[in-house]
Amino acid sequence: MNLLVLKDICYIKDLVIDPIETSLRDVASMRGDLILPYSFSLLTTYSPKKIVVGLDAVDVCVQEFELKAGMKVLIVTDKGVQEAGIVKRITDELEDADVSFDVYDGVEADPKLSNAEEVAEKARGGNYDAVIGLGGGSSMDMAKVASLSVSNPGRIEVYVGVDTVKHKGLPLYCIPTTAGTGSEVTRVAVVTVGKVKRAIVSSKIVPDVALVDPKLTVSMPPKVTVGSGLDALSHAVEAILSLDANPMTIALGLEAVRLISENLRVAYYDGRNVEARYHMSLAATMAGLSFNGPGLVHGHSIAQTFGPLYGVPHGLSCAMTLPYIMEFYLPAVPERLAWIAEAMGEDVYGLPLREAGRLAVEAVYELCVELDVPSLKDVGVEKERIPEIAELCVREWVRPNSPRLLTREDAIKILERMWEGEL
Ligand SMILES: [Fe+2]
Q1: Dist. CA 227 → ligand 1 center (Å)
Q2: Whole-angstrom Cα distance, residue 192 to residue 137?
Q3: What is the pLDDT of residues 108-134, one digit of tens each?
Q4: Which one of 20, 201, 285, 399 has the minimum C-beta count within 10 Å?
Q5: pTM assigned to the model
Q6: Is residue 258 within 8 Å of 206, Cβ to Cβ?
Q7: pLDDT tens digits, 214-271
Q8: How far is the CA of 332 from the centre of ligand 1 (A)?
Q9: C-alpha of residue 395 to centroid of ligand 1, in Å
Q10: CATH fit for domain 50-217, picks 3.30.930.10, 3.40.50.1970, 1.10.3110.10, 3.40.640.10
């Protein structure tokens, strides 16, 4: 009985056996692998206290954020969200509750350090009680910067890296207007330093409340729907393949994969379909939760290397990479790819693991082709620059959680296939 429970709550990680846990070892040998305990904290200290999901959820933002009359909040957003009238929906609620506010709508796409410093200056000078991040990943990431900047002095550059933020900042509430980044539930804020994407990674910047209103995503144009949706798919898939995954994060990831494969096409062809939008929003948030602890692997590494160099939006660059990196990982983790294939509705019954896993690679590739995801050649990458991009990728992005080491030569091979656009 004990063994069954342990088998259910433990997960294979690496080649270490706790000599005391003989029962664990028995289970390990039964599964032909080794088992370590994992921590529930991956889904608690790295996650918001509360996640609210629902149509018209913005109508209850004041209650859900526990804002009171007399408080003052800073809304961090971008001009597109402002022009779409979404900011006004929030500010109307705040006015009704006698909560005062300032709006910073200067967030840029793929914000640079200078943008982060500007947000920090605004937050430090306003005597705010809380920060609301409203928009796509960039706006929510800059809201994280605004929040932390009030309790952590100096230049924002100092906080780039893992666990460099010393103190929790202002209460932080995030409302996504796209379905992709998952930033509303993550401990990550991305900033562009020079031409390289860097991240502030800290449990101190996890939003206190994530409020997900799928109706806010209905006006997303098809291209943004695809880019953000495939970014979410990349998060889920890479989190499932990470060696630091555990059964809880894998469950979240697989459900996100299932929802995306069932709803992304509908959301792309008919953006007004609220049901598809609802499931895509849910999937993006679940995918965000799934990678919060396990982290991402080399799909994002490659994407975040060539993407900023050629001005390719983040989600699209991840989509361009995803099937190829899945193919690269297939020999190392065929069973996990087989789970993904099953979640995508592929018939894996009776197939050898590797064949079943191959179906996931092909299903993702076909999805990308149908949704007009371009090749490296299509976005203007010069073939002769591939070795240089590969070199930069392996130098900048070490991924110890990756199921397979990525050498410069591996990266060149992958990039060459991405350039042709053929699996
Ligand atoms: Fe991403």
Answers
A1: 10
A2: 13
A3: 998 999 999 999 999 999 999 999 999
A4: 20
A5: 0.89
A6: no
A7: 999 999 999 999 999 999 999 999 999 999 999 999 999 999 999 999 999 999 999 9
A8: 23
A9: 19
A10: 3.40.50.1970
